[in-house]
């Protein structure tokens, strides 16, 4: 019996592409609706793959697999794959018009490098082509302006709608109380005033269209954290900790706080996981080892990154030139870039109607 060769048509193209499985959703890209606009002109085949985020870590892998799968069809002479994205949001109508996802970067404890992590993560996400904003919610001790190279700058007012125009650097829109007061001025406010200020920074700013708005949270589990989850739908939190027990204790409290407010924990970042000697390059676990991994296992959540204590990250941060922006091809920047891909992946999963990240609870 002679098998009739596959005819070159749209069905054949879709059948070939259906062999490509998305590792997060465990379904093929055709079933997921990622394949768009298939066109065939003689032996030339063109189509679009629309992903759920521009920061998809397997984007280039999908491109290569798609080209190979369609090229194997009899009669195909060339393949043109266009990669696009449409960032998903779990909310039909968000509290901040145009903002698809709000992600809290939290720690529970100060001094663990949370703001440095938030800034480099935001810039790394913007480098993928995503539209990114960064809100410094640490009203008492704002550090993001200096980290972003925007210390001393003041946002202007968009008079027509009575909103502040966010400052921008490294492709990231940013607003902070630190840009509304003098850098040395202390904010001496009670809780209700802090909560009101956070509400204004969220909703009285002309953010425009954003795929991700990262909120750099202050230490603790108080008014700001509660106000954020009450005022706007938070897609999820990324918890930052160092490996030692005292930091893990406060990080655990932070996870519990978000759990009680029905906010998913997207994952944990272990910062200062090892000290990298600037002279010999030797790695030393000066803050102990494996703390974040144990915490992740306790709460059934993933450790998204292990970031070393590296003098180059610190120096660039102090200069207002974060390592991801100043040296994007460095091994230090690559860690944050991989983190951005992991966070984007977790957000896409959280926003999927069929696959949801559970509200984490401690294992018995």
Provide key terms for this protein.
alpha/beta, 32% helix, GMP Synthetase, Chain A, domain 3, 364 residues, Rossmann fold, 3-stranded mixed beta sheet
What's the helix and strand layout?
Blueprint: H1 10-17, E1 21-22, E2 27-28, E3 35-41, E4 44-51, H2 59-71, E5 78-85, E6 102-106, H3 114-127, E7 132-136, H4 144-147, E8 156-158, E9 163-165, E10 167-169, E11 172-176, H5 191-203, E12 212-216, H6 223-231, E13 236-241, H7 245-260, E14 265-276, E15 283-284, H8 291-298, E16 303-309, H9 311-318, H10 323-326, H11 331-351
Parallel strand pairs: 4-5, 6-12, 6-13, 7-11, 7-12, 13-14, 14-16
Antiparallel strand pairs: 1-2, 3-4, 8-9, 10-11, 14-15
Descriptive report:
With 364 residues, this protein is an alpha/beta fold. The chain folds into two domains: 76 residues, GMP Synthetase, Chain A, domain 3, CATH 3.30.300; 250 residues, P-loop containing nucleotide triphosphate hydrolases (Rossmann fold), CATH 3.40.50.300. Helices cover 32% and strands 23% of the residues. It has eleven helices and 16 strands. The strands form four sheets. Strands 6, 7, 10, 11, 12, 13, 14, 15 and 16 form a nine-stranded mixed beta sheet that branches. Helix 1 packs across helix 2 and helix 3 crosses helix 11. It starts with 9 loop residues before the first helix and ends in a 13-residue tail after the last helix. About 2% of the residues have low confidence.
